[in-house]
Design a protein that fits this description.
The structure is a homodimer. Chain A contains 4 helices and 12 strands; from the N terminus they run βαββββαβααββββββ. The first copy, chain A, is mostly beta strands. Chain A has one domain: Electron Transport, Fmn-binding Protein, Chain A (Pnp Oxidase, Chain A, Roll). Strand 12 (about 160-170) of chain A pairs antiparallel with strand 12 of chain B, so a sheet runs across the interface.
Chain lengths: ~180, ~180
């Protein structure tokens, strides 16, 4: 079940560098792309992402200025990779991969059911020479009972890693932690 | 021992979203900062990173237009966090944290001994309103016998994850993999 969370928590989901699924809705059609080139850029719910012109739905993001950045768990690895290997120009990826779209609150692109978190975003800026989409997160929802809480990290060579051992340095970093986290 | 690797392999190190140590050399002084806001941006050895004006050595990066991006293993977590909690304006971090600087080949900033990989970089562009440093990787060296090959991912709230289970989808992604990886 998705629960609303503070916008500042967008950082928690993007800073670790997970592979994400980015949904768009162009006209009447939902689409989704797999992206691993993302970056947290501040403590106030802004993130950057880039991909290439090979992504059909990146054009939809630029046109509609809206998307939802969804963080899948490691157990969805095969689906995540599959989504990245076919084009929304040829395939209805929601149908093909058995994804359930959930209506978002602030954007027309859908949330995907069963993710760890979804970030509803609007496109605030596009940095042309590098193809950087600067996204402002409008809403964060988090799965309050995930079966698998590990995120997935792409290594760029077709291999991936799930989260493993966790370290807690909250005490040591107390003075550096942004408010609310 | 560090061995030279193809520039295209910069992607392998940055795409997974690890915490990195970024060294600079300003005048006669080496410095190092902990950064987790990084992003791969192409297949040709360009990466982006951003941090904030609170980082003494980010100014050095902008001034000297050179740095080395070092990928530490998860077993160095405490050192990585420590480096992020003190300022190079007050402390000689190489001395304080027992880091060994190794002369780089193309930049004046040093490699750090004992990392998984080090990327010698020059600053190719700086995107002012967002503080994005666009780095061109000039040289990649990789540790050919790491005791711990897991990278570390920051979660933004003072907790961190090491790499865990690995998944291999090279066959499924064969047509999407960039040459040389």
């Amino acid at each position: 079940m998705y629960k609303d969370a503070a916008l500042e928590r967008a950082l928690i989901w993007i800073e670790p560098g997970p592979v994400v699924l980015v949904t768009t809705r162009d006209g009447l059609k939902n689409n989704v792309m797999t992206v691993s080139w993302t970056m947290a850029i501040d403590f106030n719910g802004h993130i950057a992402l880039t991909t290439g012109p090979w992504n059909h739905s990146f054009a939809a993001l630029l046109r509609t200025k809206q998307c939802v950045v969804c963080v899948p768990s490691a157990s969805l690895a095969q689906t995540v990779v599959g989504i990245g290997t076919v084009s929304g120009a040829q395939v209805d990826k929601f149908k093909h991969f058995g994804l359930t779209a959930i209506q978002a609150k602030y954007v027309c692109a859908p949330l995907i059911d069963g993710m760890l978190a979804c970030l509803e975003c609007c496109l605030e800026d596009f940095i042309e020479p590098y193809g950087f989409a600067i996204l402002k997160v409008l809403r964060v929802v988090e799965n309050d009972s995930p079966k698998d809480a590990r995120v997935l990290h792409a290594r760029g060579d077709g291999t991936f890693c799930a989260d493993g051992e966790r370290f807690d340095f909250r005490d040591l970093m107390a003075q550096k932690l942004p408010p609310g986290l």
